[in-house]
Here is the input.
Amino acid sequence: MKKQSMMIGLLPLCMLLSSAANAQSVEERLGYCAQIKNPLERLVCFDDLAAGKAIAYKGPAPSATAPAATGTSTPVAEFGREHLANADDKETGPSKVAITVVRYSKDMRGLLQIETNDGQVWQQTSSEAFPFDPKASYFIERGALSSYYLGRTDLNARTRVRRIQ
Here is the structure.
């Protein structure tokens, strides 16, 4: 009888301790889900947490200071690669880049295709006439909604382009 009353007395204490540990665990898992970079994975993590499912909790949350991937790429080299299939999800970088045209051509519709000195290839997408002079200096600037514009520094003229390589 004494054992039974002792067990009944310890039951609320055990419940209190387990709920406190569970609350801390939920807070940790919530913090872990909040710091996942991929939006779809983050949403799945929050959904699993809300449904009471066990999430793939791998210890502390991923740190923002995780080592970068191997390979050195400069912001200028990554400029305009956002829409390419193997590009990272980065929006940081310059909004305007000065370029040097090393090769250019026009297709049968009269649209311009240029290659820069660092190997980038850009193609004109808008059909308006653009005054191209191989000796002039050019820039490419970021526009709204993932658009890019090729412009001349000596004229107030620009045309819409997209990076193809």
Observations:
- The CA atoms of residues 29 and 57 lie 7 Å apart.
